[in-house]
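Lab channel / #folding
Pinned by the channel admin:
"Please post every new chain as: sequence first, then the structure tokens as a reply. Keep commentary short and put observations after the output so the thread stays searchable."

First post following the new format, from NK:
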Amino acid sequence: MMAENVAGKISAIVPVGQRYDRSGAVAGEYLEALRRTGRDFELVFVLDGRQRDLAERLLELAAGDRRLRIIQLARSFGEATAVSAGVENTNGGTLLTLPAYPQIDAGEIEKLLAALEFSDMAIAVRWPRAAASRFEVFRRKTFHRLVRSVSGISFSDLGCGARAFKRAVADEVPIYGDQHRFIPLLAMRRGFRVRQVEVRQSERDRYDDGYGPKIYLQRFLDLFTVVFLVRFTKKPLRFFGMIGSCTFLLGAIFLTYVVIERLFFGVDLSDRPALLLSSLLVVLGLQIFALGLLGELIIFTHARELKEYTIEKIVN
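Reply from TO:
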């Protein structure tokens, strides 16, 4: 069983997946930056897979500083699982998640920690950003505009893995799937104060391999899931009811048009694809609406078990 949380201690978690610094230089930089804070800390690398080259380097560093710890997962479970494993196996009152490759200047970690004095979570925004291809700039801006349009919350650099937050955030915000990228959104849903902090981008922050169509589709589906969790978790009828009503209304309009043609203009109903399509839309709309009602019944049944708020403090 994990020891009781230590309020002033920093637990820095580095999930190591497919992309990581094979030389282990990042680990040394993080150790040095954490030492300069003057606070008690632990630096935990969670290996999500078999990164033997990095594991050997980490073992060498751990021999010289026992505050560096290594957690080896049995197989690759995904970065979100690695973050969760790090959270569950650390006891610091302040948590840091850091990328396993050069992304920010390690010396900027203190900025993130200092920002927690006025917030519950501080997320790094790399600025100024290094020169990138036009496609990369377009992709980045499009993604953040999409996040802002569907969630109503504006962020500048959700792709940066450097974040500092209080233990309460990790205790209240569930992390699963690939939703670790959207922790700030989920934290704000719970009422936590999230602050963006500009930090220097690492000069070695380059990724030339690019991403395939599969990755972009996964990111879009993750965003869709998070938006549903943020806005419709306890109100599924609003989501499914809106879609179902629009579908039903569209089908009803088409069906009315077809019936009017038959009654007043003598148009035969046989061989009319519009009749089949309109009937299908009406039935589909009713089914989607019924799905929302079913969700409402489930939520109502378990409403007392669900919690979507966080108490900041109680006086007297």
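NK: The chain has a mean pLDDT of 86.
TO: also worth noting, The first strand starts at residue 6 and ends at 16.
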